[in-house]
């Protein structure tokens, strides 16, 4: 499929720092690479990695230190030097887990069991949001654009105060959402009249244009439509086109798109599929090519989620997803992912393939893209972890036939065969342990030690633990059977 290149408008890359926050030095290396790839801005979601002060200091991460003020200023200066705008993303309604998980903030939840949604009726809620924004804006000199999140506001309307509010005639959950976002947007404009405000669009998708027009949001915010699927279904239903047209007819004519280069396949994905993400961008190109003249597409944010939310597991780390990002950017630049676009990616990154699973070095290690060595090691380890011999070792014929839970419990086993099982399990464990040590040693150069520990415990420990249990059980059982 071939479309015109991405129309005029910024190409932003999303840095999700609520999981696996890169060390400051690695962030600079990434910005250097982004500038070569054609990136024009960064959408930075700090969450608990921002150095909040005063009463908000509790929001800072504890597993690793938050970025210092100097590091955040340095990031901006370097990005600006490379021609990139930095746009902070601060959640103001949904996905407030990193705030509302703290006991002093529990009373600001919409419902007790939903950690992510702010109670819009609490007077302190807007005050909290504005204090977060004030600290972020203060540490971004010359800031012109701010993203206020507002996506996936789960359980809205389910709190007791909301139920009372909704009992009044004409009050709806849609209005409840709009009233809070409008209040926040107006407070931002009052504090910083020049500020452009972006917000996610998903909570507004089902609203009529009349509801949107009457909300007070018109002229205050620019919706960012996000869709990460490789099957946007542009031609059959034209969902995103119709949404763009609806927002425009509601006088919200300045709009953004959001695609994805990683973090949107499955919550636990370790290695991304470049093809999947390229297809997502091809669909967005088709949307852009079909836009009515009165729709102003301000740009596209290529998201790279590191977690689905603050309390979920890690998605793909940035290094292993850089071939996907480069391929997606070249797709936007060329209007297609043809041989020329693919060749540019492989040459720029120094690899043989745009698919991380099959990429090999084409030259010396030093010429690989930043984090390329870690990407290769992760792919190798991931392949090993997925191998059936290791992942399903407990279901092998010999384990099920001669070392079943029944046999282990009664310690009635055939020593000869169980010792063969032990030898094979021990071999796998030794191979995995060696790979883990290599990956860890490389990972801590780019990420905090806590990230390496978390990644290993999430991806490796669940596979190694059954093998370790088997070897220990065999040791105990054989001891009972052999003099």
Automatic annotation (TrEMBL):
Alphabetical list of Gene3D superfamilies matching this protein: Glycosidases (3.20.20.80)
Catalytic activity: Hydrolysis of terminal non-reducing N-acetyl-D-hexosamine residues in N-acetyl-beta-D-hexosaminides
Domain named Glycoside hydrolase family 20 catalytic: residues: 62-208
InterPro entries per the UniProt record, alphabetical: GH (IPR017853), Glyco_hydro_20_cat (IPR015883), HEXDC-like (IPR038901)
Coiled coil: none
Recorded superkingdom: Eukaryota
EC identifiers of the protein: 3.2.1.52
Keyword Hydrolase in record: yes
Annotated keywords: Hydrolase
Molecular functions per Gene Ontology: beta-N-acetylhexosaminidase activity
One of the GO biological process terms: carbohydrate metabolic process
The keyword Acetylation is assigned to this record: no
Assigned protein family: Belongs to the glycosyl hydrolase 20 family.
Annotated protein name in UniProt: beta-N-acetylhexosaminidase
Organism phylogeny: Eukaryota, Metazoa, Chordata, Craniata, Vertebrata
């Amino acid at each position: 499929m071939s479309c015109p290149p991405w129309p005029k408008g910024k190409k932003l890359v999303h840095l999700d720092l609520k999981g696996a926050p890169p060390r400051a030095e690695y962030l600079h290396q990434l910005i250097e690479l982004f500038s070569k790839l054609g990136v024009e801005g960064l959408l930075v979601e700090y969450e608990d990695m921002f150095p909040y002060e005063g009463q908000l200091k509790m929001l800072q991460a504890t597993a690793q230190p938050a970025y210092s003020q100097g590091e955040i200023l340095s990031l901006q200066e370097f990005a600006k030097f490379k021609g990139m705008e930095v746009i902070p993303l601060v959640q103001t309604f949904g996905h407030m887990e990193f705030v509302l998980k703290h006991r002093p903030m529990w009373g600001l939840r919409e419902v007790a069991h939903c950690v992510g949604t702010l109670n819009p009726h609490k007077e302190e809620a807007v005050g909290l949001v504005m204090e977060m924004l004030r600290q972020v804006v203060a540490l971004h000199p010359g800031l012109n654009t701010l993203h206020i999140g507002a996506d996936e506001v789960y359980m809205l309307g389910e709190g007791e105060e909301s139920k009372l509010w909704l009992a009044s005639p004409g009050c709806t959950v849609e209005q409840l959402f709009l009233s809070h976002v409008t209040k926040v947007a107006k407070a931002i404009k009052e504090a910083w009249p020049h500020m452009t405000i972006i917000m996610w669009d998903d909570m507004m998708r089902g609203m009529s244009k009349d509801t949107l027009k009457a909300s007070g949001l018109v002229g205050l915010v620019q919706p960012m439509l996000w869709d990460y699927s490789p099957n946007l279904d542009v031609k059959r239903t034209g969902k995103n086109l119709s949404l763009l047209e609806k927002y425009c007819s509601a006088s919200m004519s300045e709009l953004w798109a959001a695609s994805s280069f990683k973090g949107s396949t499955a919550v636990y994905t370790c290695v991304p599929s470049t093809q999947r993400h390229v297809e997502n961008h091809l669909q967005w190109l088709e949307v852009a090519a079909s836009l009515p003249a009165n729709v102003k597409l301000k740009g596209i944010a290529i998201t790279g989620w590191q977690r689905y939310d603050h309390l979920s597991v890690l998605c793909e780390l940035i290094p292993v997803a850089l071939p996907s990002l480069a391929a997606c950017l070249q797709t936007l630049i060329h209007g297609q992912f043809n041989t020329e676009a693919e060749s540019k990616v492989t040459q720029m990154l120094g690899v043989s393939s745009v698919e991380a699973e099959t990429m090999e070095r084409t030259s010396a290690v030093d010429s690989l893209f930043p984090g390329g060595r870690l990407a290769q090691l992760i792919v190798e380890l991931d392949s090993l972890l997925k191998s059936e011999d290791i992942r399903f070792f407990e279901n092998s014929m010999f384990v099920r036939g001669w070392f079943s839970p029944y046999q282990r419990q009664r310690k009635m086993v055939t020593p000869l065969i169980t010792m063969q099982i032990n030898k094979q399990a021990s071999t796998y464990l030794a191979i995995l342990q060696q790979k883990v040590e290599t990956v860890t040693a490389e990972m801590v150069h780019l990420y905090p030690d806590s990230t390496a520990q978390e990644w290993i415990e999430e991806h490796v420990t669940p596979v190694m633990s059954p093998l370790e249990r088997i070897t220990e059980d065999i040791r105990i059982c054989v001891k009972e059977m052999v003099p």
